[in-house]
Design brief:
Blueprint lengths: L4 E4 L6 E4 L12 H11 L1 E4 L6 H11 L20 E3 L1 E2 L2 E2 L5 H8 L14 E10 L7 E5 H7 L2 H8 L2 E4 L1 H6 L3 H4 L10 E4 L1 E3 L6 E3 L5 E4 L4 H15 L5 E4 L6 E5 L3 E5 L9 E8 L6 H8 L3
Parallel strand pairs: 2-3
Antiparallel strand pairs: 1-2, 3-15, 4-17, 5-6, 7-15, 7-17, 8-14, 8-16, 9-10, 9-13, 11-12
Length: 296
Amino acid sequence: MVEISLTPLAGRFGVVVDSVDLHDVTSDYLFPEMRAAFERHSALLFRGQDLDQETHMRLAGLFGPIEDRYADERKKGEAFKVPEVSNMTENGVTDEMDQHMLHLKANMLWHADSTFLPVPALTNILTAKIVTTSGGATELASTRAAFADMTSKRQERLRQTRLRHRYSHSRAKISPELAKLPMFNKWPDTLWPAVWKNPVNGSEAVYVASHAFEVEGVDRAESEIFIDELVAECTSPEYVYSHNWRVGDVLIWDQRAVLHRGMPWPYDQPRKLRSICCSVTDADGLQAMRGENGAG
């Protein structure tokens, strides 16, 4: 095995991976060590990278199947392009109240990606291409650390809890009109256990998101209180790392054990990140999660 240099990123989770050029990573060179660090530390930061789309996609493919939410909308023969998290258009910077910008603001709610999909995300590989003079941080919160700090009674209750997720629910928190768009209503509701057990090391983490709207068997009003309190508990300051972007940063985190959110920036300034989500597989615990709820 090749040794990689790791420096702690935050108090309870995450590491900076030093002296690795992501262009060099292959399935049998550096990636096994990266994947082991990913399982153990939940978040990896690489500095000074210059990921082109091809390298970004190749790296993502090592983690798992690349998520493609727009496969049904793509024209025949049209190639997949790495999605951008950006306020830039061919006509300049998007207006703050534009629907696209409202969609970006919905990402400022604490969430794990794709909990509303039949196959949710394992990770997000996010890299900065254009950054603003201030603001625009991405915050991560370790739900593994939060779960470990809970009382045994609280842990056991969560192990018996299942949460229902819907994409339009998170968008409705920002704009009811946004939530009506077809892209946020493609998929039926999903039902996932509120705790995801890592099959590699047995660590448990709270599995929740801004897309969660109902606790199974509990009325909507009580569900909302429960979910809001759970998210607040998991995002207490001691569990949070705030990443201030530099061009060339690459941040990779475990969606099974980490919540994230974007932070505001001066919206008259251009900003561009590129993002690929990779889907979980049975090796990541998907079948175990489905087996517990018979859904997903």
